[in-house]
Amino acid sequence: MTRKRTAVAASAHDKLRLDRFFSEVLDGLSRSRAKALIKAGAATCDGESVSDPRASVESGREYTLTLPDPVPATPEPEAIALDILHEDDDLVVINKPAGMAVHPAPGSWSGTLVNALLHHCEGRLPGIGGVERPGIVHRIDKDTTGVMVVAKSEAAHAGLSDLFASHMIDRAYLALTRGAPRPLTGSVDAAIARATGDRKKMSVVRGREDREGRHAVTHYRTLDQYGTLDKGAGLPAAALIECRLETGRTHQIRVHMAHIGAPLIGDPVYARHRGIKAFGAGEAFIAATGAARAMRRQALHAARLGFVHPVTGEEMAFEARLPDDMEKLRVALAAMTRA
Fold first, then answer.
1. What is the CA radius of gyration of the chain?
2. So which residues are the catalytic ones?
3. Could you give the CA distance from residue 277 to residue 289 in angstroms, rounded to a whole number?
4. How far is 157 from 86, CA to CA, in rounded Å?
């Protein structure tokens, strides 16, 4: 449920910033909260979406802000099964499934990794920041699978945070892409920012001098290529690639791979078509193209995570095999290639 608050701008409001206008006319709403809601796409002007909090208000126009209903201040423990790869007194390493968000957020207030860990670690969390909760030091998208580490103690939280901030983490992702990147091995060094007009989407921005762009670097290599796009050119229809992150921006691999012309199969946001284009015939071809179209999420998996234990100093590395949907797709693509 949500609540809509509407106000018509008076002449005294003319040329005010939109976030300031809402904070002045809506009781109990701070300017910073108004700014965040506007950026999240919760504001309209005469029914048209407005996502820039700096937009100038025009007198006589009707402005609406949609306020989410309040939610519990702390997530509730939930008995959700977890695939635990390692656990000790300071941290837990899990293989996250597709469809599980890391933090409670709009659209996913329950069923998250935090909810599951609160139940799993009940009574065994000394507290992060004085509150009994797991320490999330990095995250992967709701529909991305694979290895994550979560802190259970203040010492582990601080140590892991430092390791991620200084890029002293070995992270490898596997992705199945529509087509193959060119060159087959390389790096993408392209700043990423929120997409204009769509706050849920990221995009590459030209030049690091962009005011909102954040430096982002992805190193990739092609591990395998599958099928052909057409009979003559012989370009691959799909590929299995490994990506290693130098930085960790929102949707980084998905945005960078789409930027160089090899979007992830199944990506509902950054791929124009979820399946693949391929030249061929026969049962193997039909099975492979069908498996690609059936992929209901981005084909991305956090396959490896290596780090120095922040408390014991032990070198640690964890791997998770491809999830069933990606493995099924990979096998079908390989069979198409051999046919």
1. 23
2. 141
3. 8
4. 16
Per-residue pLDDT at 210: 46
Domains of the chain: 2-68 (3.10.290.10), 84-165 (3.30.2350.10), 170-338 (3.30.2350.10)
**Rounded distance, CA 252 to CA 338, Å?**
32
Q: How far is C-alpha 303 from the chain's CA centre? A: 16
Residue 63 phi, psi (nearest 5): -115, 135
DSSP letter (8 states) at residue 13? G
Residue 21, classed as helix, strand or coil, is helix
> CB neighbours (10 Å) of residue 49?
13
Say what the pLDDT of residue 128 is: 58
Average pLDDT, consecutive stretches of 10 residues, N- to C-terminus, the chain (339 residues): 82 92 85 88 92 93 85 78 96 96 81 92 68 80 96 89 90 96 95 80 71 85 90 80 93 96 94 80 87 93 97 96 96 89
pTM score of the predicted model? 0.77
Q: Are 264 and 176 in contact (CB under 8 A)?
A: yes
∠ at Cα 84 (82, 90), nearest 5°?
Answer: 115
* Residues 176 and 238: beta-carbon distance below 8 Å: yes
pLDDT of res. 154: 83
Rounded distance between C-alpha atoms, residue 74 and residue 125, angstroms: 15
Which pLDDT does position 199 carry in this prediction?
A: 67
What is d(CA 140, CA 302) in angstroms, rounded to the nearest whole number?
8
d(CA 151, CA 128): 8
- What is the full DSSP assignment across 74-142? SPPP------EEEE-SSEEEEEEPTT--SS-BTTBSSS-HHHHHHHHTTT----BTTBS--EE-----T
Measured in residues, the chain has a length of 339
Token pair recorded at residue 86: 């390692």
> CA geometry: angle at 43 spanning 42 and 47, to 5°?
120
Cα(43)–Cα(313) distance, integer angstroms? 49
